[in-house]
Design goal:
By secondary structure, the chain is of the alpha/beta class. The chain is 27% helix and 26% strand. The longest helix is centred in the C-terminal third of the chain and has 13 residues. It is globular, with a radius of gyration of 14 Å.
Length: 150
C-alpha cells in the first residue's frame, strides 16, 4: 500500500479499480465510441493509447499524466458523466489542464454523476500504480493505492 497526496479539483470520495495510462489521454478519441455508438462500458476507442485501448473506462479510477487532443475534451468528459459512463475518478500525476478541469467541473455542477478529480499526484504515482490495483480517494486529495489482495 502507498499513499499519495494531490490537489482536489473536484472533491469527493471514490473506490475503484485502477486503469492506468502512461501517455497523454485523448478524451475525444477515448470516449468517441461510447458517446456516438452507445457503448455503456465506455470502452476506450483510442487506438493510439496502447495502455487503454479496448479497455472499459466506466467506473474505473482513471490514472494518467495529462489530457491531450482537441478543445472538445472538457465537453466530452461532461457528456460521459451526463450519460453515466464516466470514470469513478480522474487522477492526474501532473497538473490538470483547463479543458479537462472545465469538463470535470461542468459534470460536477450539471449532473448527478460523481467523478472526484485530483491532480498533482507526482511522477511517483504513475510509476507505482498499475492497472487492476485498488484505489481509494478521499475528499482532501489523498489517494491510497493497494495491491489487489490487500
Amino acid at each position: 500500500m502507498k499513499v499519495f497526496k494531490g490537489r482536489p479539483v473536484i472533491a469527493g470520495k471514490a473506490e475503484a479499480e485502477a486503469l492506468v495510462s502512461h501517455g497523454g489521454f485523448n478524451t475525444l478519441a477515448s470516449f468517441q465510441k461510447s458517446l456516438m455508438f452507445g457503448d455503456g462500458n465506455a470502452t476506450c476507442s483510442d487506438q493510439n493509447n496502447p495502455d487503454l485501448y479496448k479497455k472499459p473506462m466506466s467506473g474505473k479510477a482513471l490514472c494518467l499524466p495529462r489530457t491531450i487532443g482537441s478543445t472538445t475534451g472538457g465537453m466530452v468528459l461532461y457528456c460521459a458523466a451526463a450519460m453515466g459512463r464516466q470514470p469513478a475518478c480522474l487522477l492526474f500525476s501532473e497538473k490538470i489542464d483547463s479543458l479537462a478541469a472545465a469538463g470535470a467541473i461542468l459534470a460536477d455542477v450539471w449532473t448527478e454523476a460523481s467523478m472526484p478529480t485530483v491532480d498533482g499526484l507526482g511522477t511517483d504515482f504513475l510509476e507505482y500504480v498499475r492497472t487492476g490495483m485498488k484505489i481509494t480517494v478521499d475528499e482532501d486529495g489523498t489517494v491510497t493505492v493497494r495491491e489487489e489482495n490487500e
